[in-house]
Give the backbone structure.
Amino acid sequence: MTSVPYAEFLPTFIAVARAGSFSSVATRQGVAPSSVSRQIDALELELGTRLFMRSTQGLALTDAGELLLTRAPAVLDELVDLRAEVAALSDVPRGVLRVACFPTFGRHHVLPLLPRLLEQYPELRVELDFTERLADPVRERLDGVIRIGPLKDSRLYAQRLGTQRWSICASPDYLRANGHPTTTAELAGHRLLDKRSDPEGLGWRGLRAAGWIPADAADNALTCDDFETLLQAAVAGLGLAYLPTWVTNGATAGSCLTTVFDDPAGRRDDVHLLRALRTPPAKLAVFAHALSGIEPLRDPALA
């Protein structure tokens, strides 16, 4: 097998090609420009061709340089993935576990898992990205992404964690002061806590549009896009909230909230842990196992 000793110089080549300058790359790396130049010289020597045309106006890629810039990033990504897959064969969870999820889900259900997980696996470290966007484990080099709802990316491997359900809740104080509705028709006149931006119809507007609640059940005492804020507002007695049960389960278990109705729409949304690698590394496997015990995501038929 032919060796490829020049692979170590590829990251520097990509950085120089994109920056168009040895000195700017040297500054970012904290080395002398001559050190960067020597790496490029060594790469050109190994490949037997010029990659850059140097002039007083700066650097320009040769045809060989253009070809290498097109192919090299994918080669490096493959090497990173190969290393991760080889490491996955180890049965010892170690290293940095990088995971992205919705902020409220992370605070309610990921953070509580970590004390026991880190105690059990002392060589493990965790890096969390709490974000509302759809994080990409391939592009962002994440070990896993927790995603709720339909899956649209066939490049990824998915492990199903359970089901998201919804319910309508209010605080005992609110119900004592405003009455406890016994049918959804009685929601008219009650104060509601709703999503501010709701293009997918995940809040009260979606229930009204589908006819699950009366059209005049529209007194929004508070609108906000953050589930955690809507939960706190419901606990404070500001109105009725329509939220996923994984958001409200702690408050209902502690009697801070009362479930007024199960979801009138009967919605069920799958929750998955997505990854880029076919075989999950040990650090992701133990994390996934811990997630599988989240109570409000469990399917009653399988419990």
